[in-house]
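Following up on my earlier thread - several people asked me to post the actual chain instead of describing it. Fair enough. Here it is, all 212 residues.
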Amino acid sequence: MLTHELRNQIVVIEGFATTMLQNWESMPSEQQLDLLERVTRNAHQMHALVDAFSDVHKVENETFEISRLPTDLDRLVGDITTDLIGLGSHHIELAVKDQVVVEVDPVRIRQVLTNLLSNAAKFAPPSSTIHVSVDMNEHYAEIVVSDEGPGVPDHLRDELFRPFSRLGVEDKEGAGLGLYISRGIARAHGGDLFLAPGSEGACFVMILPLVA
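Reply from S.P.:
Thanks for posting it. Predicted structure:
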């Protein structure tokens, strides 16, 4: 599957490169810029695929390196949602408890939340609301990301966290690795990531222990 995805990106880049080599001098500057941007975008996608495959290997071999730092989750979640304000026409609604501090790898937790929010934006209707909450009990911090999309059919829930799972949706970008890697990151922290049962839309819950 990964080989197929990489081959597709290479074919696209080769096509753009060939077009530029054959027609560069006769191209308007706007077309030159457009082709260069397309090559760059596809190269970035290839890089992301290679990084994802590396993460899959770490999940499978339980070799994730976690650099724990005391992290204020309400601030981290706020920063991430601010960075992702441009998620199409979606509105992000926050319900965040103050002073939820855990020892986690903030880079990896950002990776998980970015994946969950990006997925919500892919599958939820335009202009709908994506809900994000942060809470805690005496043992765990809990981050919940939910959307107003169609949700996940019961018969496909078991496939959701398998590598390369696309759930039969082929018209969306991605290799189907994000949730598999995200759960691996949560579990490397001693926590977990799961789909809440019986929810309307998709509702993902990540729990992280308060004590490492």
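Residues 153 and 167 are 9 Å apart (CA to CA). That should answer part of your original question.
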